[in-house]
Amino acid sequence: MMLFTFLVISSRIVIKIQMKHGMHGRIVSILRVDDTQDTCIKIERIFEFGLLPLVLKSKHRKAASNDGCLWMTDDTIIINPINILSKVDIWLSDINELSNYQYFINEIVYYINGRWITRPIDLRHQHPVEYITIQNSPPNLPIYKFFLDIYIDKFGPFRNAYHAIGGIYLQISNMKQVLRQKFKNHFLYGFIPYSAASDEVLQPIIKDIQELEKGYELEINNQRVWVSGGLGVITSDLPEGNKQAGVKNHNANYGCCNCMIHHNDLHDIFFNIAKHGRYHHKTMLQIADVKNAQT
Ligand SMILES: [Zn+2]
């Protein structure tokens, strides 16, 4: 079994990269390229006023930039860690204000339908470290983290009557693609009986995963290690994906689990998904609102 340890990235740490202009960027992931031991860093680029596209260089933004305003982008690049200069504290203004910071960000600059525009900073997919509290692991133990992938699909077991049964499978996504494709590495977790709610069937495994998130000590090959992990991704088709995302069926008015497009606008290829996306933190608020309205 292949195991990789994941490095921890802080949500607040934005780094300064040594490039032509001393760019800013935020670490989104730490990558290892195939079999080499080279570690690369994936960076979300952050613009200073000077880097903004011409149409966005307003007086208002110029003034903001003098107060320390920067602009986030959707643009990512992969760099070598030796290009990292230093750490810079930047306050993303949709989260609690930092006690001290050098810069702040209010807007995301992005390119859509042939032009540059901005959207508010809260319309972004938060990095997991922004909403997950990291459990402390005991020092001096090697840490093994599991990235779990749950895969759900419905199938008809009978030839004539359609009584769909859902299969739930588990994969460990730390494995390489070739290993994941092997039949022995698909772990069958169980089946969702016809007309049963998948939430109910998934309850026990969710509890187990929550245990795993807390982490525990284990002995592997005569060595004490700290094992933790969590659910990284759910793979499924459209109907099941909507169910897991808590979104109505895909033929409802707002039936997309990624964005808020209306059923009548599905033909619109210029629809701004970034602005009208379903962002996890926004969806959680909506779900809380619905629950409050019911009680
Ligand atoms: Zn959509």
Task: Give a structural overview.
Helix content is 19%, strand content 36%. It is an alpha+beta fold and 295 residues long. It folds into three domains: 13-131, Roll (SH3 type barrels), CATH 2.30.30; 141-245, no CATH class; 248-295, no CATH class. Strands 1-2-3-4-6-5 form a six-stranded mixed barrel. Strands 10-9-8-12-11 form a five-stranded mixed β-sheet. Strand 6 (103-112) and strand 7 form a beta hairpin. The protein is globular and about 70 Å long. Bound molecules: zinc ion (ZN). The site of zinc ion (ZN) has 4 residues, from loops.
**Helix fraction?**
10-25%
The CATH homologous superfamily of the largest domain is named Bromo adjacent homology (BAH) domain
Number of strands: 12
Provide the CATH topology of the largest domain: SH3 type barrels
Would you tell me the overall average pLDDT?
Answer: 85
- Rg (C-alpha, Å): 22 Å
Spatial strand order of the main sheet: 1-2-3-4-6-5
Major pleated sheet: 6 strands, mixed, barrel
Low-confidence stretches: 1-12
Gap between N and C termini: 48 Å
Strand % is 35-45%
CATH architectural type of the largest domain = Roll
The helix-and-strand class reads alpha+beta
Order of secondary-structure elements: EEEHEEEEHEEHEHEEHH
Shape: globular
What is the CATH class designation of the largest domain?
Mainly Beta
